[in-house]
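User: My collaborator and I are trying to settle a disagreement about how two of our proteins should look. Neither of us wants to argue from intuition anymore, so we agreed to look at predicted structures for both before our next call. Could you fold the first one, then the second, and keep them clearly separated?

Assistant: That sounds like a sensible way to settle it. I'll keep them separate. The first protein:
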Amino acid sequence: MYTYKNLQDHAYDYLLEAILTEKLLPGQTYSVTLIAEQIGMSRTPVRDALQRLSQEKYVDILPSKGFLVHRISEQDIKEIFELRCAIEGYSCFSLASQITTAQGIEALGKLENCLARQREIAYDFANADIYLEYDRQFHNIITSFSGNSSFINIIDTNNSRITRFARRSLQQQKFLLKTFEEHNHIYQAISSGDAEASFQAMLDHLKTPMAENLRSLGS
């Protein structure tokens, strides 16, 4: 038997997937009642799932009317990348400062393996979706090294919000190759143990997707 939390989690997962796969789109008002009927549950767990999605800026709730998929703004993109710069820059600094520890050696090995896979597919933009997964993996390895679960959750949530922008930019070969080269530069800085250069390399790298996401916003 489903508990209430199970129902709420199911509604959340259903709605999030529909948003990320663009089955639900900005600009259209959606009915809580119809969504609940589609999922096969009452309105209450759906409403509570929407409250959670609203806090994460995936939806905008319209009282007594329903909800809209949140339309990402220029300010949203800037805030997402400012958060990423702070968290991932710090994580790079931390990893570069501890490369001789057992955890540091393990993280470097994971980054090296991830880069090797990226190198294999970086010259074929038809593999953009596959590359996007390795891109996330590369950043997650660095963020996870911090051991800070709040950092990891923030990065996961914000990366999901800009998935469609990331996929669109990586379908252009010049950005796919540029991303790989910048990842390699970050890895080289970390593996050299230069914490400040690692921090700066991550900030320089994140300027690329931020600029491209802002450009895509107007296209």
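The second protein, kept apart from the first:
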Amino acid sequence: MTLYQTTFDIFNRNYMGSAAMAVIGQSCLGGAAAMYVLANGTSIPQMIQLGIIVLACVFANTSILAQMKHKVVFNLIMLSATLSLFFILLNSLFL
């Protein structure tokens, strides 16, 4: 079994608790990513990065509130967390 499938199975079995924790976790991570992006200024590239982060977090939270399929919710949460981590690393190490 792959790491993705194992993690999804755990998420699916404990959906209510996992979804609640995911809202808190990915929202905080998105806030940290926004802070790192804005620490480098407010030019057009930073605003584009900020928009991507905000949309990813909004889509993840909306998918939970809209009670979409668990796999869709899980994928959007993983996408949001991955994008937030990417932009944190990009803005703290390279920019």
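Some points you might bring to the call about the second protein. The chain is about 85% helix and 0% strand. The chain has one domain: 3-94.
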